Amino acid sequence: MRITEAAKRLGMSPRMLRYREELGLLPPVRERGAHRRFGDEEIAAVAAGLELERRFDASPAELAFALRALAEPAVGQAVRDLGLRIGRLQAPRRALDFEKEKALRLLRGERR
Fold first, then answer.
1. Which of 2, 48, 101, 112 sees the fewest Cβ atoms within 10 Å?
2. Is the separation of the CB atoms in 30 and 67 below 8 Å?
3. How many helices (H) does the chain have, and how many strands (E)?
4. What is the pTM of this model?
5. Which residue segment(s) compose the domain that 89 sits in?
6. For helices 3-10 and 40-55, what crossing angle results, to 10°?
7. Would you tell me how many other CB atoms lie within 10 Å of the CB of residue 42?
8. CATH number for the domain harbouring residue 44
9. 3-state SS of the chain: helix, strand, coil percent to 5?
């Protein structure tokens, strides 16, 4: 189906559907150079994205960035680094650190 019909089925304007396409929130076009046609898979993928936006109160741009952070390791690492820097994330504890802390507690006579 064409974009107008797909947008109507999804309860949005064709412009909003094109915006989501620009953000990378639609499956890629199957045939290079072909006009996008919407089938059941494409409609279901867009509907799943809309549900995520509603459930997590996120904009299409926020969802697109989250996908980018998952898909591009450098972006994901930069986001993790920022999370550590601002205190929203904690650095993972290494097993050696845990064993070291345990040994120090035992030496001090502490029990846990």
1. 112
2. no
3. 6, 0
4. 0.75
5. 3-108
6. 40
7. 20
8. 1.10.1660
9. 65, 0, 35
